[in-house]
Amino acid sequence: MIRHLLSGADPDLATATQILDTAAEMATVAGREVKKLPALRGRTVVNLFYEDSTRTRISFEAAAKRLSADVINFSAKGSSVAKGESLKDTALTLQAMGADAVVVRHPASGAPHRLAHWVDGSVVNAGDGTHEHPTQALLDAYTMRSRLGRLAGLHVAIVGDVLHSRVARSNVLLLSTLGAKVTLVGPPTLIPVDIAAALAPGTLVSYDLDAVLPNVDVVMMLRVQRERMNDSYFPSAREYARRYGLDGPRMRRLPDHAIVMHPGPMNRGMEITPEVADSPRSTIVEQVANGVSVRMAVLYLLLGGNNL
Amino acid sequence: MACPPAAQPSPLPQPSVKVILTSAEVQRVVDRIAHQILEKTQGAADTVLLGIPTRGTPLARRLAARISTFEDIDVPVGVLDITLYRDDLRRHATRAVGPTQLPPGGIDGKRVVLVDDVLFSGRTVRAALDALGDVGRPASVQLAVLVDRGHRQLPIRADYVGKNIPTSLVESVKVTLVETDGVDEVKLYGGANR
Amino acid sequence: MTPYLIKGVSVVGAAPTDLLIRDGVVADAGAGLTAPDATVLDATGLVALPGLVDLHTHLREPGREDAETVESGSRAAALGGYTAVCAMANTSPVADTAGVVEQVWRLGREAGLVDVQPIGAVTVGLAGERLAELGAMADSAAQVRIFSDDGHCVADPKLMRRALEYVKAFDGIIAQHAEEPRLTEGAQMHEGEVSTRLGLIGWPAVAEEAIIARDVLLAEHVGSRLHVCHVSTAGSVEVLRQAKARGVRVTAEVTPHHLLLTDVKAETYDPVYKVNPPLRTASDIAALRAALVEGVIDVVATDHAPHAVEDKECEWAYARPGMLGLETALSIALDVLGPEWDLIAERMSRVPARIAGLDGHGVDPAPGVPANLTLVDPAARRVVEPAELASRSRNTPYARMTLPGRIVATFLRGEPTVLDGKAVK
Asked: Distance from C277 to chain A by nearest Cα, in Å?
């Protein structure tokens, strides 16, 4: 088993499959009267959040608590972090507290990699800058496998602001390990340079959403911030929605079995219309529930043994 | 493992291997436990068999099959994975979590018979009792094991024992089953030839 | 002043000879010299180079004396074989007045380890809005000739034109940090495959090339001298090659790190590899090396940029850009160019001295020449240990790397600043 989860590329096929299988067992706990397992009793998980992300934080918190770990929430606001304490000093503090795992969300790409040098415990990347968000990719893969029964051979379109998306990077890396094919779709300004060479050979790029939709099993819509138009990535929200938003007519171009995913939070009317978001194809609510199961699996597999 | 021929004694003491139960004996013992369960449970009324992986799972299925043969009763069978309840998780590399499958009727109000291959320290059964409490509320819990090798570390005893094997702590007992290992057998591995 | 007799030294790669240093100059040269009053240095196997001259050094004083001082930086320079360094203007306060450049110049004289030649800021406060008093700095005791807003690009084309024109009055030169600021907003590393993978905002090569292209046209138009700092891309080399072929008065420098390290180093997210301009790709390195040999790039300059620990031991995006360079530059040059002593002397001493107008520097040791020279052991190899560096800072990207060559001694106007590989003071 791996020691940290920093990137969607960290788990190999066997490990990724083990995480998803374990998550399936963890999911049964959610249906029980006693939604708690003793596996991580006496372990301490620190949620170190330098960005506001209530959704991700409570997902990790629920996961850790269902495994009976002690959870310490360390948010940047109102703490010594806000007073200018360096990441390294914070890391040494957490180390002294005996943190077995640090779940870190940070606006700077690579901050979890730095943290992993300074603490003995496991580091879980809960989103770093415009880099990666591996547990999101794992829960997305879990959702695809639950809905479609497999991952190998699936064709997944990831649509929108790939340039600034940590979800997209982690998904491309993990899905390639799991044998799925990925096409990235968006305006050329929002597709980073050399993406296939950078992440996974075989990754395709398209600027034409309508051409891609009939050939995919999964379409994953990324959140697009309206402010990007102020930096000339696209002319207006309206034009973006018209060319790259998923609406009812576009959704009907998908094969019957295809699903629509979104990591949330959504910009309804921007990248996705309410009709699509609330349709039976949409897995958006499932993704949230699956997030807890997948994070339980990750925490268990990182902390459940003596893997040091 | 083949024993060295008597004519060429090895200079080093070889670990001994002793077959405790042969294939036929394993089947006889399973039959006996099935009869005892029928006896002690008034014909397996309101009874559920839960196997503890790995080898408790096929044993539970065999017991249910034998009960069905003897009395034409279908006893529900399930699997109870106890990995997340073990008290020795931190002593090993992370263990893979297996599936827990409760029979469709559940276990609430039922008599649950836990089935495992070897009863030793009792810690596995302790973990199983904890796991059971989190998935439901049985009316009572019993324990069936193929082999009891003694050396209990907890106040736990089995209701059905296929064979009691007196062992020393340096010895180990290995159960193999057709379903998991290709052959039915119980062997005792010793520290050295006695 | 103690005379020194250096025995059996190869002057810039020539056959071994002896050098007698007396009264600040090379008094005599030739085989079998004797001088009973001189301290004899056995220089068998060593190579004598004219003292190295760095066109691009950050000494951090005034303002960040915790990272470097004129004295500690001078010591690092001497240990690296330098006898003169040009101190960049981005101090605090900025070296944009005669007062600040004279202060830096005076501190250099007091340290007495290398000649510290201040560079003046082009614009007030490096803000890129209006010209600093370039003439006053030129007329000061520091006699500033190179002006640069290094760290910032003089992005405004009109301001750049005026600066180029204005310094003609005192034979000045504008050293441009070529970085189109709008194309590099928030940039963290070279824009390419690695930046895409690491999710770090890219610094595209074109942001450098576009400014160099514009500036060579401006320099050509007004007939002025332009110097381009830390050229880092293959595209820049092509722009420079064409400009030089047309006769534009442009010179260019490349740093040791841009000759050796690629953007792949960023994969560690260790900000010791964060630098501006950023580390580029292997094909850029190949083009830069070829340009240096060919002379399209004139000079190796260190861009020695000391930073305090807290400015590097942090998240990549929050770290300051820059690397140490003075104490490792010659080793990197040897590694990259091989024992091409004449080329090394040309790129690291003679040409930079000429560009900076530093009389008495950049001249090969010969009778009558000021004794600014350094002795190199080309056979030695050393492991770079950050804690052993003379700089106050530790941000070397070569930590624990084994590099060829070692500076054995350095002389500044006949006085040893380094002997037996150690600083004399």
From this structure: 19
Q: Which of residues 244-283 of A touch C (CB under 8 A)?
A: none
**CA neighbours closer than 13 Å in the CB half-sphere of residue A220:** 30
Assembly ipTM: 0.94
Phi (first) and psi of residue C262, to 5 degrees: -110, 170
Minimal Cβ distance to A114: which of C191, C193, C315 = C315
- Superfamily of chain region C51-356: Metal-dependent hydrolases (3.20.20.140)
Q: In this complex, do A199 and C317 lie within 8 Å of one another by their Cβ atoms? A: no
* CA angle, C35 then C38 then C40, to 5°: 100
Give domain status of residue A252, yes or no: yes
Instruction: Name every chain B residue with its beta carbon within 8 A of the beta carbon of A34.
Output: 133-135
* Total domains, chain A: 2
On chain C, the residues whose CB falls within 8 A of the CB of A199 are 196-197
Fold of C4-47+367-423: Urease, subunit C; domain 1 (2.30.40)
**Pick among B84, B86, B95 to test the A interface (most A CBs inside 10 A):** B84
Among chain A residues, the shortest Cα distance to B99 is held by A25
For B99-139, how does the pLDDT look when each residue is reduced to its tens digit (9 = 90+)? 999 999 999 999 999 999 999 999 999 999 999 999 999 99
CATH architecture of the region B23-168? 3-Layer(aba) Sandwich (3.40)
* 3 state SS for B22-63: CHHHHHHHHHHHHHHHHHHCCCCCCEEEEECCCCHHHHHHHH
Gap from B98 CA to chain A (nearest CA, Å): 7
Same structural domain, A122 and A154: no
Query: What residue spans define the domains of chain B?
Result: 23-168
The answer to whether the beta carbons of residues C62 and C72 sit under 8 Å apart is: no
pLDDT per position as a tens digit, A243-294: 999 999 999 999 999 999 999 889 999 999 999 999 999 999 999 999 999 9
